[in-house]
Amino acid sequence: MEDADLLRSLGIDPAQLDPAPPWAPRQSAGAERLDGSHPCALCGEPARATGVVAPPGHGRRWLDRCMPCLLATTPRGGPRAPLADTLAVLRETAREAGVALTIVADGSYPAAVATLRFHLTLLTGDRPVMHGWWSDLPTAEKKYTRWIGERGSRPGARITLTDEADGGRLLKSWPDGDT
């Protein structure tokens, strides 16, 4: 990802970032910035990581971030999980936070995601720790049974199977439902 694209995706105005030296800083130069006096460009907490970006028209700038923001905003070359799993986690997190969420994806994705109707969730306590999506019920039911055997021994484990095409209707639930 280009520096300008990164800053745009983070909602950061490059003009608001501190100018960086014209030479490439080594670890010691960046470490000197991490004295607690520079805020994270995203949340304002003290920065614990820094780097240099060079968006066009702004020269070299310091991009300071706290560790949670750095981890949450570092480009990783694309999702490692299937898109449906990523979207499920986003939806669940937004629901838990009470946030209205609209997901807009590249035009090639909605058709593929729309066919993944049956949603399997493993929760420990009230937190989802694993999701799976399948387009046909027999496969989803096999996975449901398999998850009970493989993951049902986790403390507080609860496994649910829902039909997302039917408004998220609960089809199966373990341990308090059928198996």
Brief synopsis:
The chain has 6 helices and 6 strands; from the N terminus they run ααββαααββαββ. It has 179 residues and is α+β, with helices and mostly antiparallel strands.
Question: Tags for this entry?
Answer:
4-stranded antiparallel beta sheet, elongated, 6 strands, 179 residues, two-stranded antiparallel ribbon, alpha+beta, single chain
Description:
With 179 residues, the protein is α+β, with helices and mostly antiparallel strands. The chain is built from 6 helices and 6 strands; from the N terminus they run ααββαααββαββ. Helix content is 32%, strand content 21%. The strands form 2 sheets. The chain has a 4-stranded antiparallel sheet, with helices on both faces. Strands 1-2 form a two-stranded antiparallel sheet. The chain is elongated.
